[in-house]
Amino acid sequence: MSAFAVRGTAETPGVPPGGPVKGLPWAVLRLHRTALVVWGAFLLATLGMLVWEAGINADSVRDRMAACEPTVGLCRIRALTDYGGTIGWASTLVYYSFFAVAAFAAGALIGRELENGTAQLAWTQSVSPTRWLATTLAVPAVLLTVGGTVFLFVFRWAWAANRDLMGDDWTFNDVFAARGPALVAYGLCGLGVGALAGVVLRRSLPALGVACGVMYLVNHNLEKYRPQLWPTVPGDGSGSGTWANGTWVLDDGASHPQSHFWPLHLVETGIVLGVAVLATGAAFWVLRRRTG
Description:
By secondary structure, this protein is mainly alpha-helical. The chain has one domain (19-291). It has eleven helices and three strands. It has a three-stranded antiparallel beta sheet with strand order 1-2-3, with no helix packed on it. Helix 4 (73-95) runs antiparallel to helix 7 and helix 9 runs antiparallel to helix 10 (204-224). The longest helix is centred in the N-terminal third of the chain and has 35 residues, at 33-67. It starts with 18 loop residues before the first helix and ends with a helix.
């Protein structure tokens, strides 16, 4: 069944309100409403987790620490780990959701529609292939951008609200991304890469696998070479790790102070957005070549 044949008007059965062109965003939302509900529920759950921990549970964690015997350091460590671990898990879940976005874009949003022929049917109803792809990608892109932006502001608040209960390791991959626009960039990149895989392969399962594999390579290499994205400052040669003052000491003794977070983060964000633009542009180019 075509995306436009799900529901019609009395005057034109099978065509959404406003006609096939103006009704395309409506059709995309309705066709993928299950994914939208799942994304919304997932986002609300992680936001609720952050608000609970930072706004409500923090005082009880301090009470647990105060009740620990002074000689039992493990008791305090467990309390801090429980609090910081929950905040960290929220960032991890949302950060790595770009794999789910890539899989959805490749498998359901693009690949399945081309494989089943519903996209081709839509093109016969006054909707050009380019307009179809643009709207199909624009709807989830807006939702990803809005949802990701809300999450990163709430996460930054939760990260800063109780610094006495959190560690100083700003270099953790999920925390690093969740504190800035890289979080949104990875989601948009997954969308673009998934779209390209779907348009090229036109099969949902192969496109899903390729999209996730490409996103793994992009993410893995950026995390691996993240220290090289911005010039370091000389260190004392005492080894690698993140020290108490928040300085990221690399294997060669060079360092990244906390003030380097934004330069490193913004450079990575730019690279990820560049991949997203290239992948999306390539998807449009391939579609135009194949549809004439």
